[in-house]
Protein backbone atom coordinates (compact mmCIF):
# COMPACT_ATOMS: atom_id res chain seq x y z
CA UNK A 1 0.00 0.00 0.00
CA UNK A 2 2.80 2.41 0.97
CA UNK A 3 4.55 1.73 -2.35
CA UNK A 4 1.37 2.46 -4.33
CA UNK A 5 0.80 5.73 -2.46
CA UNK A 6 4.41 6.75 -3.14
CA UNK A 7 3.96 6.09 -6.86
CA UNK A 8 0.81 8.19 -6.92
CA UNK A 9 2.51 10.96 -4.94
CA UNK A 10 5.47 11.08 -7.33
CA UNK A 11 3.05 11.26 -10.27
CA UNK A 12 1.16 14.08 -8.59
CA UNK A 13 4.40 15.98 -7.89
CA UNK A 14 5.15 16.02 -11.63
CA UNK A 15 1.52 16.84 -12.43
CA UNK A 16 1.39 19.69 -9.91
CA UNK A 17 4.73 21.17 -11.05
CA UNK A 18 3.49 21.33 -14.64
CA UNK A 19 0.11 22.64 -13.48
CA UNK A 20 1.76 25.34 -11.37
CA UNK A 21 3.69 26.53 -14.43
CA UNK A 22 0.47 26.83 -16.43
CA UNK A 23 -1.46 28.43 -13.56
CA UNK A 24 1.18 31.15 -13.18
CA UNK A 25 -0.06 32.60 -16.47
CA UNK A 26 -3.70 33.18 -15.37
CA UNK A 27 -5.50 35.56 -13.02
CA UNK A 28 -5.46 35.31 -9.19
CA UNK A 29 -9.20 34.58 -8.86
CA UNK A 30 -9.06 31.81 -11.45
CA UNK A 31 -5.89 30.45 -9.80
CA UNK A 32 -7.58 30.05 -6.42
CA UNK A 33 -10.53 28.25 -7.95
CA UNK A 34 -8.28 26.02 -10.03
CA UNK A 35 -6.12 25.04 -7.04
CA UNK A 36 -9.22 23.97 -5.09
CA UNK A 37 -10.42 21.87 -8.02
CA UNK A 38 -6.99 20.25 -8.38
CA UNK A 39 -7.17 19.25 -4.72
CA UNK A 40 -10.48 17.51 -5.49
CA UNK A 41 -8.86 15.80 -8.48
CA UNK A 42 -5.86 14.60 -6.44
CA UNK A 43 -8.15 13.24 -3.72
CA UNK A 44 -10.17 11.30 -6.33
CA UNK A 45 -6.99 10.01 -7.96
CA UNK A 46 -5.45 8.70 -4.73
CA UNK A 47 -8.80 7.16 -3.72
CA UNK A 48 -9.09 5.30 -7.03
CA UNK A 49 -5.47 4.18 -6.77
CA UNK A 50 -5.84 2.84 -3.22
CA UNK A 51 -9.42 1.48 -3.20
CA UNK A 52 -10.29 0.40 -6.76
CA UNK A 53 -10.74 -3.35 -7.16
CA UNK A 54 -7.75 -3.61 -9.53
CA UNK A 55 -4.40 -1.83 -9.54
CA UNK A 56 -4.23 0.74 -12.32
CA UNK A 57 -0.94 2.38 -13.41
CA UNK A 58 -0.92 6.10 -12.43
CA UNK A 59 -0.11 7.21 -15.98
CA UNK A 60 -3.17 5.37 -17.28
CA UNK A 61 -5.35 7.25 -14.79
CA UNK A 62 -3.81 10.62 -15.65
CA UNK A 63 -4.11 10.01 -19.40
CA UNK A 64 -7.73 8.93 -18.96
CA UNK A 65 -8.45 12.11 -17.00
CA UNK A 66 -6.84 14.28 -19.67
CA UNK A 67 -8.79 12.54 -22.46
CA UNK A 68 -12.01 13.14 -20.55
CA UNK A 69 -11.17 16.78 -19.90
CA UNK A 70 -10.38 17.59 -23.54
CA UNK A 71 -13.39 15.67 -24.87
CA UNK A 72 -15.76 17.94 -22.89
CA UNK A 73 -14.56 21.04 -24.79
CA UNK A 74 -15.59 20.36 -28.40
CA UNK A 75 -15.38 17.53 -30.96
CA UNK A 76 -12.04 18.73 -32.36
CA UNK A 77 -10.06 19.12 -29.11
CA UNK A 78 -8.37 15.99 -27.79
CA UNK A 79 -5.52 14.64 -25.69
CA UNK A 80 -2.96 12.68 -27.69
CA UNK A 81 -0.85 9.93 -26.14
CA UNK A 82 2.82 9.90 -27.27
CA UNK A 83 1.91 7.25 -29.87
CA UNK A 84 -1.06 9.25 -31.16
CA UNK A 85 0.99 12.47 -31.23
CA UNK A 86 3.74 10.78 -33.21
CA UNK A 87 1.17 9.40 -35.65
CA UNK A 88 -0.38 12.85 -36.07
CA UNK A 89 3.02 14.35 -36.96
CA UNK A 90 3.88 11.68 -39.51
CA UNK A 91 0.54 10.66 -41.05
CA UNK A 92 0.74 13.24 -43.86
CA UNK A 93 4.00 11.64 -45.03
CA UNK A 94 2.96 8.00 -44.77
CA UNK A 95 0.41 5.94 -46.65
CA UNK A 96 -2.54 4.21 -45.05
CA UNK A 97 -5.64 2.38 -46.19
CA UNK A 98 -8.70 4.56 -45.93
CA UNK A 99 -12.21 5.05 -47.21
CA UNK A 100 -11.88 8.56 -48.60
CA UNK A 101 -14.14 10.49 -46.23
CA UNK A 102 -13.79 13.57 -44.07
CA UNK A 103 -15.66 13.19 -40.77
CA UNK A 104 -16.57 15.43 -37.85
CA UNK A 105 -18.87 15.51 -34.84
CA UNK A 106 -22.11 17.41 -35.41
CA UNK A 107 -24.94 17.53 -32.87
CA UNK A 108 -23.11 14.81 -30.96
CA UNK A 109 -23.18 12.41 -33.93
CA UNK A 110 -20.33 11.13 -36.09
CA UNK A 111 -21.05 12.97 -39.35
CA UNK A 112 -19.56 12.69 -42.83
CA UNK A 113 -18.49 16.14 -44.01
CA UNK A 114 -17.94 14.77 -47.49
CA UNK A 115 -16.80 11.70 -49.39
CA UNK A 116 -13.71 12.48 -51.46
CA UNK A 117 -14.21 12.12 -55.19
CA UNK A 118 -13.09 8.85 -56.86
CA UNK A 119 -12.45 7.03 -53.55
CA UNK A 120 -14.08 3.88 -52.09
CA UNK A 121 -16.50 5.98 -50.01
CA UNK A 122 -17.51 8.07 -53.04
CA UNK A 123 -18.03 4.98 -55.20
CA UNK A 124 -20.10 3.29 -52.46
CA UNK A 125 -22.72 6.06 -52.62
CA UNK A 126 -21.97 7.72 -49.28
CA UNK A 127 -23.19 11.35 -49.16
CA UNK A 128 -22.28 14.49 -47.23
CA UNK A 129 -24.36 14.68 -44.08
CA UNK A 130 -24.69 10.92 -43.59
CA UNK A 131 -24.38 9.93 -39.90
CA UNK A 132 -22.21 6.93 -39.03
CA UNK A 133 -24.13 5.08 -36.30
CA UNK A 134 -22.16 1.80 -36.32
CA UNK A 135 -18.65 0.69 -37.26
CA UNK A 136 -18.27 -3.09 -37.51
CA UNK A 137 -21.52 -3.49 -35.58
CA UNK A 138 -20.35 -1.26 -32.70
CA UNK A 139 -22.60 1.71 -31.92
CA UNK A 140 -20.75 5.03 -32.22
CA UNK A 141 -22.73 6.85 -29.53
CA UNK A 142 -19.80 7.38 -27.12
CA UNK A 143 -16.92 7.20 -29.60
CA UNK A 144 -14.46 10.08 -30.01
CA UNK A 145 -13.42 11.48 -33.37
CA UNK A 146 -9.89 10.06 -33.11
CA UNK A 147 -11.21 6.63 -32.11
CA UNK A 148 -13.54 6.62 -35.11
CA UNK A 149 -10.70 7.51 -37.48
CA UNK A 150 -8.62 4.63 -36.08
CA UNK A 151 -11.45 2.15 -36.61
CA UNK A 152 -12.10 3.31 -40.16
CA UNK A 153 -8.44 3.15 -41.20
CA UNK A 154 -6.68 -0.11 -41.89
CA UNK A 155 -4.56 -2.07 -44.32
CA UNK A 156 -5.35 -1.49 -48.02
CA UNK A 157 -7.54 -4.28 -49.35
CA UNK A 158 -9.23 -4.97 -46.01
CA UNK A 159 -12.95 -4.55 -45.48
CA UNK A 160 -14.90 -2.34 -43.09
CA UNK A 161 -18.65 -2.43 -42.48
CA UNK A 162 -20.45 0.75 -41.47
CA UNK A 163 -24.08 1.60 -40.82
CA UNK A 164 -25.20 5.08 -41.79
CA UNK A 165 -28.33 7.09 -41.09
CA UNK A 166 -29.47 9.18 -44.03
CA UNK A 167 -31.86 11.63 -42.37
CA UNK A 168 -33.67 12.80 -45.50
CA UNK A 169 -34.66 9.19 -46.22
CA UNK A 170 -35.27 8.24 -42.56
CA UNK A 171 -33.55 4.89 -42.92
CA UNK A 172 -30.43 2.99 -41.93
CA UNK A 173 -28.08 1.71 -44.63
CA UNK A 174 -25.39 -0.92 -44.16
CA UNK A 175 -22.41 -0.34 -46.42
CA UNK A 176 -19.39 -2.56 -46.99
CA UNK A 177 -16.26 -0.71 -48.18
CA UNK A 178 -12.81 -2.00 -49.17
CA UNK A 179 -9.99 0.24 -47.92
CA UNK A 180 -7.54 1.68 -50.46
CA UNK A 181 -4.52 3.96 -50.51
CA UNK A 182 -6.14 7.38 -50.88
CA UNK A 183 -4.58 9.53 -53.58
CA UNK A 184 -6.20 12.89 -54.17
CA UNK A 185 -6.04 15.01 -57.32
CA UNK A 186 -6.62 18.53 -56.02
CA UNK A 187 -7.39 20.35 -59.28
CA UNK A 188 -9.35 18.48 -61.94
CA UNK A 189 -11.81 18.67 -64.85
CA UNK A 190 -10.27 21.94 -66.11
CA UNK A 191 -12.15 22.81 -69.31
CA UNK A 192 -14.21 25.31 -71.27
CA UNK A 193 -17.92 24.56 -71.10
CA UNK A 194 -20.23 26.60 -73.35
CA UNK A 195 -19.88 30.26 -74.40
CA UNK A 196 -16.33 30.68 -73.10
CA UNK A 197 -17.24 29.68 -69.53
CA UNK A 198 -14.27 28.04 -67.79
CA UNK A 199 -14.66 25.34 -65.15
CA UNK A 200 -12.29 24.18 -62.39
CA UNK A 201 -13.06 21.50 -59.80
CA UNK A 202 -11.04 21.98 -56.59
CA UNK A 203 -11.28 18.91 -54.32
CA UNK A 204 -9.00 19.94 -51.44
CA UNK A 205 -6.48 22.58 -50.31
CA UNK A 206 -3.15 20.76 -50.18
CA UNK A 207 0.46 21.88 -50.46
CA UNK A 208 0.60 22.11 -54.27
CA UNK A 209 -3.02 23.14 -54.85
CA UNK A 210 -2.30 26.87 -55.30
CA UNK A 211 0.34 26.16 -57.96
CA UNK A 212 -1.95 23.69 -59.77
CA UNK A 213 -4.85 26.14 -59.56
CA UNK A 214 -2.71 28.87 -61.11
CA UNK A 215 -1.81 26.50 -63.99
CA UNK A 216 -5.49 25.77 -64.52
CA UNK A 217 -6.30 29.49 -64.73
CA UNK A 218 -3.49 30.00 -67.25
CA UNK A 219 -4.79 27.07 -69.32
CA UNK A 220 -8.32 28.46 -69.39
CA UNK A 221 -7.00 31.90 -70.32
CA UNK A 222 -5.10 30.43 -73.27
CA UNK A 223 -8.25 28.57 -74.35
CA UNK A 224 -10.26 31.80 -74.40
CA UNK A 225 -12.23 31.72 -71.16
CA UNK A 226 -14.11 34.92 -70.31
CA UNK A 227 -15.88 33.78 -67.12
CA UNK A 228 -15.33 31.08 -64.52
CA UNK A 229 -17.05 28.45 -62.37
CA UNK A 230 -15.02 27.23 -59.36
CA UNK A 231 -16.57 24.04 -58.01
CA UNK A 232 -15.97 23.63 -54.26
CA UNK A 233 -18.75 21.11 -53.67
CA UNK A 234 -17.66 18.31 -51.32
CA UNK A 235 -14.32 20.05 -50.73
CA UNK A 236 -13.56 19.48 -47.01
CA UNK A 237 -10.83 22.13 -46.79
CA UNK A 238 -7.18 21.61 -45.95
CA UNK A 239 -4.34 24.06 -45.46
CA UNK A 240 -5.31 27.59 -44.43
CA UNK A 241 -2.38 29.26 -46.18
CA UNK A 242 -3.29 27.53 -49.46
CA UNK A 243 -6.92 28.68 -49.22
CA UNK A 244 -5.63 32.22 -48.71
CA UNK A 245 -3.24 32.00 -51.68
CA UNK A 246 -6.01 30.79 -54.00
CA UNK A 247 -8.33 33.56 -52.75
CA UNK A 248 -5.59 36.08 -53.65
CA UNK A 249 -5.95 35.11 -57.32
CA UNK A 250 -9.27 36.99 -57.36
CA UNK A 251 -8.77 39.77 -54.84
CA UNK A 252 -6.50 42.82 -55.24
CA UNK A 253 -3.98 43.89 -52.62
CA UNK A 254 -5.48 44.98 -49.31
CA UNK A 255 -8.78 43.10 -49.56
CA UNK A 256 -9.56 41.04 -46.45
CA UNK A 257 -9.77 37.29 -47.00
CA UNK A 258 -10.31 35.87 -43.50
CA UNK A 259 -9.69 36.71 -39.86
CA UNK A 260 -9.16 34.50 -36.82
CA UNK A 261 -10.20 35.40 -33.29
CA UNK A 262 -9.38 33.67 -30.01
CA UNK A 263 -9.17 34.51 -26.31
CA UNK A 264 -5.56 35.70 -26.52
CA UNK A 265 -4.29 38.57 -28.64
CA UNK A 266 -1.64 36.38 -30.26
CA UNK A 267 -4.42 34.15 -31.62
CA UNK A 268 -6.06 37.05 -33.48
CA UNK A 269 -5.07 37.74 -37.06
CA UNK A 270 -6.35 39.28 -40.28
CA UNK A 271 -5.26 37.85 -43.63
CA UNK A 272 -5.39 40.28 -46.55
CA UNK A 273 -4.56 39.82 -50.20
CA UNK A 274 -1.01 40.71 -51.17
CA UNK A 275 -1.60 40.24 -54.89
CA UNK A 276 -0.38 43.28 -56.80
CA UNK A 277 -0.65 41.81 -60.31
CA UNK A 278 -2.25 39.06 -62.45
CA UNK A 279 -5.65 39.50 -60.77
CA UNK A 280 -8.22 37.24 -62.43
CA UNK A 281 -11.13 39.60 -63.10
CA UNK A 282 -13.49 37.27 -64.97
CA UNK A 283 -17.11 37.15 -63.79
CA UNK A 284 -17.19 34.19 -61.41
CA UNK A 285 -19.53 31.74 -59.68
CA UNK A 286 -18.45 29.61 -56.71
CA UNK A 287 -20.36 26.35 -56.24
CA UNK A 288 -20.76 25.06 -52.65
CA UNK A 289 -22.86 22.48 -50.81
CA UNK A 290 -23.17 20.88 -47.38
CA UNK A 291 -19.89 19.04 -48.02
CA UNK A 292 -17.91 22.30 -48.48
CA UNK A 293 -16.00 23.03 -45.27
CA UNK A 294 -13.11 24.95 -43.73
CA UNK A 295 -10.86 26.23 -46.58
CA UNK A 296 -13.78 26.06 -49.03
CA UNK A 297 -15.81 28.29 -46.74
CA UNK A 298 -12.91 30.73 -46.44
CA UNK A 299 -12.64 31.08 -50.23
CA UNK A 300 -16.42 31.29 -50.73
CA UNK A 301 -16.78 33.79 -47.87
CA UNK A 302 -13.99 36.01 -49.23
CA UNK A 303 -15.51 36.06 -52.72
CA UNK A 304 -19.01 36.73 -51.38
CA UNK A 305 -18.19 39.44 -48.82
CA UNK A 306 -15.89 41.31 -51.23
CA UNK A 307 -18.63 41.23 -53.92
CA UNK A 308 -16.12 39.54 -56.19
CA UNK A 309 -18.46 36.83 -57.47
CA UNK A 310 -21.67 34.90 -56.88
CA UNK A 311 -21.87 31.96 -54.45
CA UNK A 312 -24.39 29.38 -55.64
CA UNK A 313 -25.63 26.03 -54.31
CA UNK A 314 -26.65 25.03 -50.79
CA UNK A 315 -25.44 26.08 -47.33
CA UNK A 316 -21.93 24.87 -46.46
CA UNK A 317 -20.93 22.62 -43.54
CA UNK A 318 -19.79 25.23 -40.99
CA UNK A 319 -16.32 24.02 -39.95
CA UNK A 320 -14.56 27.21 -38.94
CA UNK A 321 -12.41 26.50 -35.92
CA UNK A 322 -8.61 26.50 -35.65
CA UNK A 323 -6.81 23.74 -33.77
CA UNK A 324 -3.30 24.13 -32.37
CA UNK A 325 -1.22 21.08 -31.45
CA UNK A 326 0.72 21.69 -28.23
CA UNK A 327 3.49 19.23 -27.27
CA UNK A 328 3.68 18.00 -23.67
CA UNK A 329 6.96 17.22 -21.82
CA UNK A 330 6.46 13.43 -21.94
CA UNK A 331 5.90 13.29 -25.72
CA UNK A 332 2.12 13.46 -25.53
CA UNK A 333 0.18 16.43 -26.93
CA UNK A 334 -2.94 18.56 -26.77
CA UNK A 335 -4.96 19.24 -29.89
CA UNK A 336 -6.78 22.36 -28.75
CA UNK A 337 -9.26 24.69 -30.45
CA UNK A 338 -7.67 28.12 -29.99
CA UNK A 339 -9.57 30.39 -32.39
CA UNK A 340 -12.34 30.60 -34.99
CA UNK A 341 -12.54 31.81 -38.59
CA UNK A 342 -14.54 34.89 -39.57
CA UNK A 343 -15.40 36.10 -43.07
CA UNK A 344 -14.44 39.67 -44.15
CA UNK A 345 -17.85 40.94 -42.97
CA UNK A 346 -17.19 39.54 -39.49
CA UNK A 347 -19.51 36.52 -39.79
CA UNK A 348 -18.41 33.42 -37.89
CA UNK A 349 -18.09 30.36 -40.14
CA UNK A 350 -18.14 27.80 -37.33
CA UNK A 351 -21.52 26.17 -36.84
CA UNK A 352 -23.07 28.67 -39.26
CA UNK A 353 -21.58 27.95 -42.66
CA UNK A 354 -21.78 30.10 -45.78
CA UNK A 355 -25.25 30.84 -47.14
CA UNK A 356 -25.19 31.09 -50.96
CA UNK A 357 -26.28 34.25 -52.77
CA UNK A 358 -28.42 31.97 -54.95
CA UNK A 359 -29.83 28.79 -53.41
CA UNK A 360 -30.09 25.89 -55.86
CA UNK A 361 -30.54 22.37 -54.55
CA UNK A 362 -28.85 19.52 -56.38
CA UNK A 363 -31.30 17.42 -58.36
CA UNK A 364 -30.26 13.98 -59.52
CA UNK A 365 -32.22 12.81 -62.57
CA UNK A 366 -33.84 9.39 -62.08
CA UNK A 367 -32.08 6.57 -63.87
CA UNK A 368 -34.15 4.98 -66.61
CA UNK A 369 -34.60 1.24 -66.13
CA UNK A 370 -33.05 -0.60 -69.10
CA UNK A 371 -34.67 -3.56 -70.82
CA UNK A 372 -32.80 -6.88 -70.99
CA UNK A 373 -32.10 -6.23 -74.68
CA UNK A 374 -30.64 -2.78 -73.93
CA UNK A 375 -28.50 -4.23 -71.12
CA UNK A 376 -27.13 -6.94 -73.40
CA UNK A 377 -26.39 -4.44 -76.16
CA UNK A 378 -24.62 -2.12 -73.70
CA UNK A 379 -22.53 -4.98 -72.33
CA UNK A 380 -21.36 -5.98 -75.83
CA UNK A 381 -20.36 -2.46 -76.86
CA UNK A 382 -18.80 -1.73 -73.45
CA UNK A 383 -16.56 -4.79 -73.89
CA UNK A 384 -15.51 -3.59 -77.36
CA UNK A 385 -14.80 -0.07 -76.01
CA UNK A 386 -12.86 -1.46 -73.03
CA UNK A 387 -10.62 -3.42 -75.39
CA UNK A 388 -10.04 -0.32 -77.55
CA UNK A 389 -9.31 1.82 -74.50
CA UNK A 390 -6.72 -0.61 -73.17
CA UNK A 391 -4.91 -0.40 -76.50
CA UNK A 392 -5.16 3.40 -76.80
CA UNK A 393 -4.38 5.56 -73.75
CA UNK A 394 -5.22 8.81 -75.57
CA UNK A 395 -8.65 7.45 -76.48
CA UNK A 396 -9.20 6.50 -72.84
CA UNK A 397 -8.39 10.03 -71.63
CA UNK A 398 -10.58 11.56 -74.34
CA UNK A 399 -13.54 9.34 -73.44
CA UNK A 400 -13.17 10.18 -69.75
CA UNK A 401 -13.12 13.94 -70.56
CA UNK A 402 -16.26 13.59 -72.69
CA UNK A 403 -18.06 11.76 -69.87
CA UNK A 404 -17.10 14.48 -67.37
CA UNK A 405 -18.22 17.24 -69.73
CA UNK A 406 -21.56 15.54 -70.37
CA UNK A 407 -22.11 15.04 -66.64
CA UNK A 408 -21.35 18.70 -65.91
CA UNK A 409 -23.65 19.98 -68.63
CA UNK A 410 -26.46 17.86 -67.12
CA UNK A 411 -25.72 19.05 -63.56
CA UNK A 412 -28.54 21.45 -62.58
CA UNK A 413 -26.27 23.52 -60.27
CA UNK A 414 -23.67 23.93 -63.03
CA UNK A 415 -26.50 24.85 -65.41
CA UNK A 416 -27.69 27.51 -62.95
CA UNK A 417 -24.13 28.89 -62.63
CA UNK A 418 -23.81 29.08 -66.42
CA UNK A 419 -27.15 30.94 -66.62
CA UNK A 420 -25.91 33.48 -64.06
CA UNK A 421 -22.67 34.06 -65.99
CA UNK A 422 -24.54 34.40 -69.28
CA UNK A 423 -26.84 36.93 -67.60
CA UNK A 424 -23.86 38.94 -66.34
CA UNK A 425 -22.42 38.97 -69.86
CA UNK A 426 -25.72 40.25 -71.30
CA UNK A 427 -26.01 42.86 -68.54
CA UNK A 428 -22.45 44.13 -69.13
CA UNK A 429 -23.28 44.58 -72.81
CA UNK A 430 -26.58 46.28 -72.03
CA UNK A 431 -26.17 50.02 -72.29
CA UNK A 432 -28.48 51.08 -69.42
CA UNK A 433 -27.82 53.34 -66.43
CA UNK A 434 -26.69 51.29 -63.43
CA UNK A 435 -28.93 53.26 -61.03
CA UNK A 436 -32.04 51.95 -62.79
CA UNK A 437 -31.29 48.36 -61.73
CA UNK A 438 -32.47 47.36 -58.26
CA UNK A 439 -30.06 45.01 -56.49
CA UNK A 440 -31.71 42.10 -54.69
CA UNK A 441 -31.00 38.54 -53.64
CA UNK A 442 -32.37 35.86 -55.93
CA UNK A 443 -33.43 32.50 -54.51
CA UNK A 444 -33.95 29.68 -56.99
CA UNK A 445 -35.92 26.63 -55.84
CA UNK A 446 -35.95 23.57 -58.03
TrEMBL record:
Broad enzyme group: hydrolase
* Entry's Gene Ontology molecular function annotations: serine-type endopeptidase activity
Q: Name one GO biological process term.
A: proteolysis
A Gene Ontology cellular component where this protein is annotated is: outer membrane-bounded periplasmic space
Q: Which PROSITE patterns match?
A: PDZ
Q: Which UniProt keyword terms apply here?
A: Hydrolase, Protease, Serine protease
Q: Which InterPro entries match?
A: ClpP/crotonase-like_dom_sf, PDZ, PDZ_sf, Peptidase_S41A, Tail-specific_protease
| Listed EC numbers | 3.4.21.102
Q: Which residues form the PDZ domain?
A: 85-153
Q: Which family does it belong to?
A: Belongs to the peptidase S41A family.
Q: What is this protein called?
A: Carboxyl-terminal protease
Amino acid sequence: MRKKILVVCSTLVVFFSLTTLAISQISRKVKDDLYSQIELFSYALTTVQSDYVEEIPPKELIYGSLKGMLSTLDPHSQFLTPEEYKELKTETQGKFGGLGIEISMKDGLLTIITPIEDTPAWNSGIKAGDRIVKIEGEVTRDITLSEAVKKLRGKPGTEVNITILREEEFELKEIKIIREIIRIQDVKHVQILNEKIGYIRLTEFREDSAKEFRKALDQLGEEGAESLIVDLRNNPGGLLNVAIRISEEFLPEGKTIVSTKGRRIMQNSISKSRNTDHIVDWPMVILINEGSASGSEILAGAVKDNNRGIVLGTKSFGKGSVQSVIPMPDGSGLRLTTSKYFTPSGTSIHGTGITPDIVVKRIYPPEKEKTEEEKKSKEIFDNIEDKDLKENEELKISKRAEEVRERLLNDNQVQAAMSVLKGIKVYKNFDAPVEMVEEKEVIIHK
